[in-house]
Design goal:
The chain has 135 residues and is α+β, with helices and mostly antiparallel strands. The chain has 4 helices and 6 strands. The protein folds into 2 domains: 3-82, Winged helix-like DNA-binding domain superfamily/Winged helix DNA-binding domain (Arc Repressor Mutant, subunit A, Orthogonal Bundle); 89-130, no CATH class. The protein binds zinc ion. Zinc ion is lined by residues 34, 82, 84, 88, 90, 101.
């Protein structure tokens, strides 16, 4: 995605495109991918960016709040940002930390329990935890 397109995309999602937000957006939105904050910071450093960690965190929180990226929490201390924002599922490899998309139509219907009173279903997103076969 070219710089001008990314700027427009941020605006479309109600995010004021500051130069620092654009730097973060250029890393995460360049293709369909799942990145941790550390991976995003590494990528920014490789491009020679001096953006602070706090600014990266703040930008990602804002992107997530505005629906520009999706947050996937695979464990209490492991969060990824997904540039694919439509509903889909994931394989999470617990040994490599790799997340892989599962197209929604390939996962069978699940039995959904009765929802708590006064709530409605917003969505179902499944993380299937996998590991290498033990022989
Ligand atoms: Zn995904």
């Amino acid at each position: 995605m070219a710089g001008a397109d990314i700027k427009q995309k941020l605006r479309d999602f109600g995010v004021q495109p500051t130069s620092q937000r654009l730097e973060v957006a250029e890393v995460i939105l360049q293709r369909p991918q799942h990145l941790s904050v550390d991976q995003i910071i590494d990528a920014l450093r490789q491009r020679g960016s001096r953006i602070s960690k706090a600014t990266v965190y703040n930008s990602l929180n804002l992107f997530s709040k505005n629906g520009l990226v999706k947050e996937i929490n695979v464990a209490a201390d492991r969060r990824y940002y997904d540039s694919t924002i439509h509903a889909h599922h994931h394989f999470y490899h617990v040994e490599t930390g790799e997340l892989t998309d599962i197209p929604p139509e390939t996962l069978g219907m699940m039995k959904i329990p009765a929802l708590p009173r006064g709530t409605e279903q917003e969505g179902v997103e499944v993380v299937i935890r996998i590991r290498n076969k033990r022989t």
